[in-house]
# Entry
Amino acid sequence: MIARKKPSSGNGLRWYVVCARPHAETRAFVHLKRQGFQTFLPLYRKTIRHARQFRTVNAPLFPRYLFVALNLDRDRWRSVNGTFGVSRLIMEGERPKSIRSGVVEHLIVATDPYGLVLAAPDLKPGEKVRFASGPFAGLVGELLALDDDGRVRVLLEVMGAQIPVRTHRLGMVSAA
# Structure
């Protein structure tokens, strides 16, 4: 989840790391946004197996962490620590520790409009890939082809047979 406006160096905004309470990243994101802070919570699609059932959910890319853009000279940054769902800002001495410029911006560019990080944008045919979500979660195969719409063809070995599968590249990571 993201507020699409990027901080620019001209307005003094920098990205900082917020440590959320366990399983409260979304709650922290919503409450920080309501206070007017620009926030970024990178997500990915994750398949959960429980009692012979599969469920695909959006999960935080960095469990318990999200990002907030602040101008420490202008914003009331101490109020971040008192926000519902927030445990604390990551500090360096008496002030929040900023993230190196370009890191969060790179993550923002790699997300879709819903804040889902587009997994493995640099996949190449012939390389081994692992499914992180979906019905093939955990399986490894060889990438045969990919197209501009994000669809891929993967050759999976299942029970001794090689089966070509056509699916979306989301939830797929390099197995190398």
The chain has two domains: 9-109, 128-174. The first strand starts at residue 14 and ends at 20. The mean pLDDT is 84.
